[in-house]
């Protein structure tokens, strides 16, 4: 038990470090290859903040723990909206004025509804997983297209600053790219082993562990990115980071997990409790940020509501475990 807890803590630390190294190496390598700064920002940052969820869920599926993989994806979305945006908005109100963000929020709601429709029968087949991954490929293409059309957006300025601050020689960039990827895989295996061992020792399901401990740990990059973005005044990046990550989680993380290990039957709570909570919070975020004017705002009051919703959901999970 003690070794498993140390594995979870150590796995989280190594996971966050390796994800940061991987993103930095990938961004610098892409820059050396002549990719546009904005394109690097959309693809690398998007993949980077979702890399922990993707790798952890893939490892969980390979190890025969698909419930943990599904719980990680849906739980991470709940953490992103309730905890991360809640805390970020309470630290500093978030202005929402980017055309890309306003279009992405309704799209996120539609993707969430589509995922619910796929999971409604209590199973996830390889064909359905391929559909999700196809949607993910389409999303990446659409995001890149929209980003290139919006070259004056704040994201381009932020990306240029990021790449300038992290300029490095090509050999060092390739080294961090490879080492970061290897460390991501190793840390994910350590984390999944520790989480499953603790769940079995406490008599808690893999799903609950995935929805709580693992979901929180793999969402730490989004928390750091959103807080840093708000402190720099890049409000659209703060909320766009969360919205984009949630789309990646629903399409890529669940898609990869189901492709590796199709699920013939998972707990009904995934739909009635977890997916429903995720959708309520997603729709709530859409309503909170909607404005008839050009600028909407996620103020401290709305941030507090999101945070309290997250606390209430986790209290619900705790009652489920105790019952």
Automatic annotation (TrEMBL):
Start and end residues of each Sodium/calcium exchanger membrane region domain: 4-144, 173-318
Pfam families, per database record: Na_Ca_ex
Keywords tagged on the record: Membrane, Transmembrane, Transmembrane helix
Membrane-spanning segments: 69-93, 105-123, 129-148, 173-196, 208-230, 242-263, 275-292, 304-322
Membrane topology, from the record: Multi-pass membrane protein
Subcellular location: Membrane
InterPro entries according to UniProt: K/Na/Ca-exchanger, NaCa_Exmemb
Signal peptide segment: none
UniProt protein name: Calcium/sodium antiporter
Provenance organism: Zhongshania aquimaris
């Amino acid at each position: 038990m003690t070794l498993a807890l140390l594995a979870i803590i150590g796995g989280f630390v190594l996971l966050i470090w390796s994800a940061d190294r991987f993103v930095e190496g990938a961004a610098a390598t892409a820059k050396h290859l002549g990719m546009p700064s904005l394109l690097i920002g959309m693809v690398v940052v998007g993949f980077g903040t979702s890399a922990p969820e993707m790798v952890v869920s893939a490892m969980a599926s390979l190890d025969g723990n698909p419930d943990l993989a599904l719980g990680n994806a849906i739980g991470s979305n709940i953490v992103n909206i309730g905890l991360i945006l809640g805390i970020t908005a309470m630290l500093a109100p978030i202005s929402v004025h980017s055309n890309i963000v306003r279009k992405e929020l309704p799209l996120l709601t539609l993707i969430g509804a589509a995922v619910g429709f796929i999971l409604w029968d209590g199973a996830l087949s390889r064909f359905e997983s391929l559909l999700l991954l196809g949607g993910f490929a389409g999303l990446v293409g659409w995001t890149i297209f929209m980003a290139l059309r919006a070259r004056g957006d704040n994201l381009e300025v932020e990306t240029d600053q990021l790449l300038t601050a992290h300029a490095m020689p090509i050999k060092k960039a390739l080294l961090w790219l490879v080492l970061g990827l290897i460390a991501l895989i190793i840390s994910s295996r350590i984390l999944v082993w520790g989480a499953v061992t603790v769940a079995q020792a406490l008599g808690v399901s893999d799903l609950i562990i995935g929805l709580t401990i693992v979901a929180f740990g793999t969402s730490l990059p989004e928390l750091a990115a959103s807080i840093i973005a708000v402190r720099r005044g890049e409000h659209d990046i703060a909320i766009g980071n969360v919205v984009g990550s949630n789309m990646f989680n629903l399409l890529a993380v669940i898609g990869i997990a189901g492709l590796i290990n199709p699920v013939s039957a998972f707990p009904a709570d995934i739909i009635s409790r977890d997916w429903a909570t995720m959708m309520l919070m997603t729709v709530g975020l859409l309503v909170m940020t909607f404005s008839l004017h050009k600028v909407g705002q996620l103020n401290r009051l709305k941030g507090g509501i999101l945070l309290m919703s997250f606390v209430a959901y986790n209290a619900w999970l705790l009652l489920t475990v105790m019952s």
